[in-house]
Amino acid sequence: MTLTATQRSTLPGRHLWQAPEFTLAVIAVAGFAALAVATGGNLLSAGTLGAFFRFLAVPIVIGLSQMVVLAVGQMNLSVGALTGFCAMAAAWLMLEAGLPAPLAVLAALLLGLLVGVTNGFLVVLTRINGFIVTLATMTIIQGLRYGVNGPDTFQGYSPGLRAFGRASILGLPAVFLVALAVAALVALFFSRTVPGRHLLASGGSPFAARLSGISNDRSLIVAHGLSGLLAGVAAVLTVAASGSVNATIGDDLLLPSFAAPIIGGVALTGGMVSVTGTLLAAFLVRLVDVMQAQFGINPRWVDLIIGAVVLGAVLLGTVRSKLQERSD
Amino acid sequence: MLVAENLVKTFPGVRALDGVSLSLRPGSVHALLGENGAGKSTLVKLLTGVYRPDGGRITLDGEERHFAGPLDAQRAGIGVVHQERNLIPAFSVAENIVLHHLPSRGGRLDKRRMRAEAVRCLELLEVDLDPDIPVSRLSVAQAQLVEIAKALSLDTKVLLLDEPTASLTGDEADRLYTVVRRLRDAGHAVALVSHKLEEVFAVADTVTVLRDGRSVAQDAPLTGYTQAQVVDLMVGRAFASIALPDRTVDGEVTPALQLSDVSTALGHRGISLTVRPGEILGLYGLVGAGRSELAKAVLGLERITSGTVRIHGRPARIRTVGEALHRYRIGYVTEDRKGEGLFLDQPVSRNIAVTVWRRLARAGLVRDRSERELAGTYADRLGIRISSPRQPAGQLSGGNQQKVSLAKWLAAECDILIVDEPTVGIDVRTKAAFHELIAGLAADGLALLLISSDLPETVGLADRIAVMNGLRIVGELANDHDYPRMSQQIIRLIHAAETVSAA
Prior knowledge:
Strand order of the largest sheet of chain A: 1-4
InterPro entries (chain B): AAA+_ATPase, ABC_carbohydrate_import_ATPase, ABC_transporter-like_ATP-bd, ABC_transporter-like_CS, P-loop_NTPase
CATH architecture of the largest domain in chain B: 3-Layer(aba) Sandwich
Number of strands of chain A: 4
Largest sheet of chain A: 2 strands, antiparallel
CATH class of the largest domain in chain B: Alpha Beta
Number of strands of chain B: 22
Distance between the termini of chain A: 31 Å
Mean pLDDT of chain B: 87
Largest interface: A-B, 27 and 40 residues
Order of helices and strands of chain A: HHHHHHEHEEHHHHEHHH
Structural class of chain B: alpha/beta
Structural class of chain A: mainly alpha
Radius of gyration of chain A: 20 Å
Helix content of chain A: over 70%
Shape of chain B: globular
Organism (chain B): Winogradskya humida
Keywords (chain B): ATP-binding, Nucleotide-binding, Repeat, Transport
Helix content of chain B: 25-40%
Number of domains of chain B: 2
Number of helices of chain B: 18
Protein name (chain B): ABC transporter permease
Shape of chain A: globular
Oligomer: heterodimer
Largest sheet of chain B: 6 strands, mixed
Mean pLDDT of chain A: 87
CATH topology of the largest domain in chain B: Rossmann fold
Domain ABC transporter (chain B): 2-237, 246-495
Radius of gyration of chain B: 25 Å
Strand order of the largest sheet of chain B: 6-9-10-3-11-12
């Protein structure tokens, strides 16, 4: 099981270079090389390169968090707020409640899972679209987040956790490796496990899934629960990598959470996911970020660029599926 | 006059129409008859610009026409009322009638002209409807009249009606046909698609009968036929019993599936039927008789309000398809294979293994290889033609898709199979192979409930035939495979039931 395995149904006779992920990989490599040259090799210095990958970890996990709900044709607007909330909770547990770091980490993960499962149950029980349900929970969580510590910043928690956030293994930041491992598990979940396949079946055709004995309700709850759990993972990585936490954390994660899977070729209608695509797209978004920092571009332009690329990716996806239909 | 000559329309795997001609004359009602899947709706859609023909030509008043789309056809003077509702409930009657060509003045909706046009269309029908109330407040019959008024806007000369009375009561249908006669007398050409033969004989002047995409009667005066003769034309005299494996049903053995006096929340009342292992029970009825809905009630998708369901003699309360599948081993091959039967963009292997992932999993993980092996087994057994188990199900022909849709239940080792309209939209040759397959499954000891509105198929395959009409079983017949006799008995049962319910 490697990260290159995606759940895209591979058409016979389709070659690697025809896969959308291949295009993304080429753009990623070319973009990285171009930026390395443009910065006079500065990008490749140990410090810059480390920071590049360290701050790629959260966008990857948050993109996956969005991807698992997209798999069932839903959206989760609360991923960013939830990441911030779990991060605040973990910091509070360590600093105010005096919990040891491993327990605080576990608590943050469970909190994410719990909120996610709640989202799932609300969607199933009320039959209200997940977009609206998670919009509501996002707003509630944002309020709660300020409730934890007001506008103040938590810092000076667990030296061990912060050391882990700065640690590198074989030249790659530990948090980035954790994100890759999580991505591998998510890929395994969708390609090999029964619940993962049920998710894709429910997303691909809820009617056919129901008539095959699959519970679409369960798929929705599992998807939202997993999305929440991944937001919890993103929170832990944030706490470890950034060294301090305040109530604004997570506010800027909503657009990236959609950008990664959508640019990565995940279908908004559900039934098809691509872990590789999501990883590569998160990498590209990170490149744009670094470019902005290197050249002192107004941060607003970054949002504009990413927004435009997301829109372009959606249009491209539509055109692609139209073309495919025509050739069938 | 609208004339179609040698129209051909092919869909992937199926030749839906194979050289069909007909002409619709002003001042005349033309009936278009045929069984389900004979090509009636395809023909209607070709004539109204929904589809483009692959061959042949369409002329309107002597001039050849190529319609770019439905609106183009309507502008040319061809209006249609499709089987499905096409009104916007929240809009007013007038807005719905004029929807596709709302008049404007200076960029703003010209309400006065809109209303005037709507009133003109309603007056053509001589019906008294307030053009300003929303369609959601109308009865089904009134909404149907609005559909016709809508089809008549833009100076329509040719009107096509596809099953216009399917959801109307007898009285409402009579009133609708009064309107149809009025339009005919006013010089419109009307084409009528309906499976209600009595209505057709009461209103139509000429008839074209389609069977398997070809016309077996073309532009013939209806007075030359009796209803029985038309039925024969529709289903085909040449029907020979399908060469099927010999099998005998043990009448003593415990029924695999038994419904006793079952009523459902959808309105089925007092349904009793029995299917034994190795037996095929045909459940025949017209579209809308409530057969698929009954099947879904057995699977737990619709609520059963009273009566008992027994599986292998034991009372069963089935709440979900999962339960029906994993606990009672009941499979349901849906009539809507594209919508409900298959994951079209997923590989064939997944479509077959979807019911058995739990069994295939080792340590919680399903291997693609075990899935592909399973798919290969069933592809061989059922003769599914695939280039690779990885091929998406959506790329297969109709017949092969249907086999995939069946294979997933065989993979799950179901011993009770409900097969719903198994050969709709499948070409004749594949149909025969499929019939053999179904009979083979019964010979292997499976209990089969065959839901079909295809008479030759039902008479050819079933051991007994239960006839359903209006959410009730109106009779059950032992099948002696004598087609002319069986088909007449069945049709008589349905007509008797229609007469009773209309009275």
